[in-house]
Amino acid sequence: SGCGNSDTGGDAGGTDKIVLGFSQVGAESGWRTANTNSIKEAAGAAGIELKFDDAQQKQENQIKAIRNFIQQKVDVIAFSPVVESGWDTVLKEARDAKIPVILTDRSVDSADKTLYQTFIGSDFVKEGRLSGEWLVEQTRSATGPVNIVELQGTTGSAPANDRRKGFAEAIAANPNLKVVASQSGDFTRAGGKQVMEQFLKANPKIDVLFAHNDDMGLGALEAITAAGKVPGKDITIITIDAVKDGMQALADGKFNFIAECSPLLGPQLMDLVKKVHAGESVPTRVETEETTFTVEQAKAALPTRKY
Ligand code: AHR
């Protein structure tokens, strides 16, 4: 995939266009779709030739795509690593080929920081922490135990690891807040629905759902309703992302709180691509700005929400 026929990369085509190879995680969520659109639009607007590959949530596909980009001698490689570990070999291959690499959205756990130029994306630990802090605030007057179930993102992914950590840290000082079940729903609606069904069967008293993204929360809504419970009332629901469908659920009172994760990384990514291609120095970390939403804030923001 991603084999254009006009400019085959490098200088072979004789054009001045920068060729960017981008390996995307997949199309698992509304967030991911918005992220892909942002990258494609921004590449077009910046006059950058984009070779885009969808890895269908498989690391082996991403490694293959990156090797293809190296073979095609693209100018810059960017990718959103599906999981954190296991990238050193292929990143060394890119470095040996003198192709700069930009991590987008998710980071890697490589000890050697010279394997990539920069990492642009959100602070996932913070998103988890903000979610936990909101819950602590909401449950201040609770007398009995508050039972929480957690729908984790893709196992081994940075957002799943970090959101889990930030949330756990935020609620740690409150022993009545207890995560009674925590399992991966792979960031998909189907996964969220299926795992929530299991949670509901195994746990007679669930007070709170913390879902690592909107899509899993949206899938869980079906399971909760089917179990005869009212989402947003019987079960307090906290999610992350703030994509349109999530914001609609929040405005409708089915969700109670969302910590935003912005998918609109395209324009900033293209700026970084131009800079590393020109040999300019770039910051090693570019953090995305984001906020949080309550029901009232979602109602106000929804009409002008772009994705
Ligand atoms: O890496 C970002 C996460 O990946 C988003 O929160 C989730 O929706 C997506 O699948």
UniProtKB/TrEMBL annotation:
Domain Periplasmic binding protein positions: 21-280
InterPro entries: Peripla_BP_I (IPR028082), SBP_2_dom (IPR025997)
Keyword set, alphabetical order: Signal
GO molecular function annotations of the record: carbohydrate binding
Location of this chain's protein in the cell: Cell envelope
Cellular component annotations (GO), alphabetically ordered: cell envelope
Superkingdom of the organism of origin: Bacteria
One protein family per Pfam: Peripla_BP_4
Gene3D superfamilies, alphabetized: 3.40.50.2300
Family according to the record: Belongs to the bacterial solute-binding protein 2 family.
UniProt protein name: Monosaccharide ABC transporter substrate-binding protein, CUT2 family
Lineage: Bacteria, Bacillati, Actinomycetota, Actinomycetes, Micromonosporales
